[in-house]
C-alpha cells in the first residue's frame, strides 16, 4: 500500500528551454562544416564545366559575347580559324601564373583542368549540337544563366574557369570585395571591345546578358558565405 509521499507526482511541465536544448542538440556544431569529398569535387566541376561550355556555345550561335576571357575567346572567333574551345584555353594560359602566385598550385591545377574540360566540352557542343537558327535573345539569356550557375558550382568546389574569375576571387578573398561586382567591371571592357566586330544591337544584347550573369554571381557568391 503506497503512501501519499510515495506516489509519483504529476510530471513537471516542459518549458520552452527544454525544447530549445533538444533542437540545439540536433543542429551541427557551430563552425563545423563537412568538406567536399574528392568524388563530389570531380562531379561538381564536371557539371559546372559542361554548363559553362553549353552557355558559351549558345552565345557563339547567337553572335554575342560575354565578359572575361570567355568574351575574349568569343571575339577572337570572328577573326581566327581556331574553334571556340581552343581559343578559350589559349586566352586563359597567362592567368595560370597569377593563380599560382596568389592561390597556390592546388587551385591552379584545378583551374587549368576546368578550363581544359570546358574547351573539350565546347568542341563537343559544336560537333554534336548544331543549332541552325538560334533566337539571339533566348540564346544570350540562357547562355549567361548557364555560365553564371556554372561559375557558382566550380567556385564552390575550389576551382574557377580562369581569367577574370581568378582576379575576382583574389579581390574577394584579399580585399573583401564582391566577386560579382569585380567581374562586372572587368567585363565592361570586353563588351566595349565587341563594338569592333559586332553590330550595336548585338553588343547591347551581350551587355544585358553580362549583367544577368554577374548579378547571379553578386547575389550568390559573397565573402564568408561558403566554408566547405
UniProtKB/TrEMBL annotation:
Transmembrane segments: 42-59, 71-95, 107-124, 136-155
Phylogenetic placement of the source organism: Bacteria, Bacillati, Actinomycetota, Actinomycetes, Micrococcales
GO cellular component terms, semicolon-separated: plasma membrane
Record has Secreted as a keyword: no
Pfam families: YitT_membrane
Subcellular compartments: Cell membrane
Coiled coil: none
InterPro entries: UPF0750_membrane (IPR051461), YitT (IPR003740)
Signal peptide (from-to): none
Protein name (record): YitT family protein
Keyword annotations of the record: Cell membrane, Membrane, Transmembrane, Transmembrane helix
Main location: membrane
Membrane topology listed for this record: Multi-pass membrane protein
Chain intervals for the UniProt region annotation (Disordered): 1-22
Amino acid at each position: 500500500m503506497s503512501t501519499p509521499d510515495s506516489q509519483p507526482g504529476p510530471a513537471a511541465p516542459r518549458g520552452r528551454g527544454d525544447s530549445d536544448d533538444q533542437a540545439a542538440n540536433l543542429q551541427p556544431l557551430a563552425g563545423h562544416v563537412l568538406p567536399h569529398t574528392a568524388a563530389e569535387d570531380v562531379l561538381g566541376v564536371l557539371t559546372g564545366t559542361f554548363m559553362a561550355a553549353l552557355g558559351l556555345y549558345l552565345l557563339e550561335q547567337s553572335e554575342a559575347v560575354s565578359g572575361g576571357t570567355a568574351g575574349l575567346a568569343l571575339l577572337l572567333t570572328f577573326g581566327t580559324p581556331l574553334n571556340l574551345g581552343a581559343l578559350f584555353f589559349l586566352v586563359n594560359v597567362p592567368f595560370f601564373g597569377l593563380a599560382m602566385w596568389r592561390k597556390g598550385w592546388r587551385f591552379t591545377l584545378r583551374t587549368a583542368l576546368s578550363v581544359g574540360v570546358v574547351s573539350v566540352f565546347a568542341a563537343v557542343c559544336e560537333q554534336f549540337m548544331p543549332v541552325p537558327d538560334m533566337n539571339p535573345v533566348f540564346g544570350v539569356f540562357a547562355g549567361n544563366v548557364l555560365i553564371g550557375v556554372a561559375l557558382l558550382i566550380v567556385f564552390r568546389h575550389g576551382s574557377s574557369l580562369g581569367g577574370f574569375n581568378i582576379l575576382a576571387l583574389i579581390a574577394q578573398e584579399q580585399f573583401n570585395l564582391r566577386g560579382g561586382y569585380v567581374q562586372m567591371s572587368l567585363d565592361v571592357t570586353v563588351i566595349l571591345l565587341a563594338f569592333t566586330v559586332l553590330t550595336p544591337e548585338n553588343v547591347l544584347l551581350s551587355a544585358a546578358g553580362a549583367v544577368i550573369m554577374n548579378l547571379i554571381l553578386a547575389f550568390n557568391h559573397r565573402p564568408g558565405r561558403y566554408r566547405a
